[in-house]
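Researcher: I'm comparing several assemblies side by side, and this is the next one on my list. It has 265 residues spread over two chains. Same procedure as the others: predict the full complex and return the structure.
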Amino acid sequence: MRILIILGCPEPPLLIPSFIYLLNMLKNKGHEIIISANPAALKLIEASDPEKHYIKGVGFQNIDEGLKNKFDVDGIIGFAHNDPAVNYIITYKAVYGAKTLALVFGKYINQEFVRNLEEEGVITFTARAFHNPTPVLVKLKNIVNIL
Amino acid sequence: MSCIDNYNYDILHKGSFKECAQYIKNNYKNIRNLNAGEEVIEGVMLIGKPPIPVAYHDDYIIFPYTKPCYGTYVLRVPLKEYMQSHKEKMNKGKDKKDRKSGSDSGSVKNILSKLKFW
């Protein structure tokens, strides 16, 4: 399967490590991965894996460019911790028309984010976490299982 | 590559997407509701939960614009620039059609060539 992963603002400390963990899980299952992320997030990913053990063969694009260059994907996974990320996930679902899963996380779970995503048909998970990635990793395993 | 920096925009309001959509609805009469992902001016896609309000007032187009780290803004772009970008888009569309007729088989290749790979 070709999976698109959406990363918004990389401000939460757990975001990039959790993404690498998810990438590893998906690659081990034989999926093809493409990332749509903001430029700072792409640089952080590159810096986290200097020898490209995890990111080798992974496609990447700017989060805005991804809305212009549409291609076929089998699933979309989005990380949402703020209002723009929720809006981007909803927009990607509308543009790509693929099954979309989102993980809403943060120090506190904003129920409005969850409601907005679910109203647009996005399968939504929540994890109360900001520094410690463990709750997010548990939910990511669930997400990978239902892809 | 074109983006919002190519336009002379004014920022009218900043907030969450919901607040920005409400701002447009409250302050303008001539509103069209568009879907997420539609290209409002060349190179600028609408981002947010549909229906997304886009207003036309005097010689301006007013729409919500989202940045991943900074939130949503209500932007005002002169309609003259919008018309110019629209014309360019139409011309480009024609060129693309001409080119497409000869290269349909390479569509998968084209998709991947737009992406970069590590």
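Model: For your comparison table: Helices of chain B lie at 17-27, 79-100, 107-114.
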